[in-house]
Every structure is written in structure tokens, then in C-alpha cells.
Design brief:
This protein is an all-alpha fold and 149 residues long. The chain has helices at 10-39, 41-69, 79-107, 113-148. It has four helices and no strands. The chain is elongated.
């Protein structure tokens, strides 16, 4: 059992999350590329903003549902805090692909979509990995501070 009471090992959960980020990045890259080619760079920014909020809402709902199923009280982690954490993760996950799509639209708008989708998926993976690593390092620092006191 891990910290939230799930029988799935943390490594499996992390791998599933990173695989989802690859898929989300690929879909986001394709959608942002099509919107950007049709409506311009502002559409890429708006798709990033809407995608980030949807990412935060979907992940936080999933996590809060899983926690309630295992008896973790909802007041232990307020839903707003959980939503804020996953929105930041979504901003990192979709931010790098959005920048890549915007840069590619400015430089070579006639590129094939497959190239953009591959780059967006890879950058979403890297952004999500970076955000998860930052969270792990922050929690590790808190645990070390608690053990010293």
C-alpha cells in the first residue's frame, strides 16, 4: 500500500501518469496546430489556457474520487489546493508543447502535422517529468526538514 492507500505501486502509477502525459501532449499538439494554422497564435495560447484548466479539473477529480474511495477525509486536502497543484502540473505539461507549436507556426507554417505532434508529445512528457521531479524534490526537502527537527 502506498501513502494514499492504493495497492498499485507508486512506480506503476508514475509510469501510467507519464504515458498519459505523452498522449495528452500528442492530442494537444494536433489540436493546437490546427487551431493555430486556422486562427493564429492567440488560438494556441487560448488552447493552452483551456487545456491547462481542463487538465487540472480532470486530474483533481480523479484523485479526489480515489481518495474518497479509500476513506481519506476531504478536509485533509482541500479540493482547491488539489486543483491548484494539478493545474500547475497541467501548465508545465502543456506549456512546452504550446511554445513549440507557436514557434513552429512562426517559422514554418507549412510543416507536416506528424512532426509537430511528435515534438509536442515529447515536450509534454519532459514538462510533466520536470514538474513531477520538482514536486518530489520539494516533498523530499520537507521530509528532511521534519526529520532534523
Amino acid at each position: 500500500m502506498n501513502q494514499i492507500g492504493l495497492a498499485v505501486p507508486i512506480s506503476s502509477s508514475l509510469l501510467i501518469s507519464l504515458a498519459l502525459q505523452l498522449g495528452i501532449g500528442a492530442v494537444f499538439g494536433a489540436v493546437a496546430w490546427q487551431l493555430g494554422r486556422r486562427y493564429g497564435l492567440l488560438a494556441v495560447f487560448l488552447s493552452w489556457l483551456i487545456g491547462t484548466l481542463a487538465f487540472g479539473a480532470a486530474y483533481s477529480a480523479r484523485v479526489l474520487h480515489a481518495w474518497s474511495a479509500f476513506g481519506i477525509p476531504p478536509d485533509r486536502y482541500p479540493p482547491r489546493m488539489v486543483f491548484a497543484i494539478f493545474t500547475v502540473l497541467g501548465a508545465f505539461t502543456l506549456g512546452f508543447p504550446a511554445l513549440s507549436v507557436a514557434r513552429r507556426l512562426r517559422r514554418a507554417p507549412a510543416q507536416r502535422m506528424w512532426t509537430v505532434v511528435r515534438a509536442a508529445a515529447g515536450l509534454a512528457f519532459a514538462g510533466g517529468l520536470l514538474a513531477i521531479a520538482a514536486g518530489v524534490l520539494t516533498n523530499l526537502g520537507r521530509m528532511l526538514d521534519a526529520s532534523v527537527q
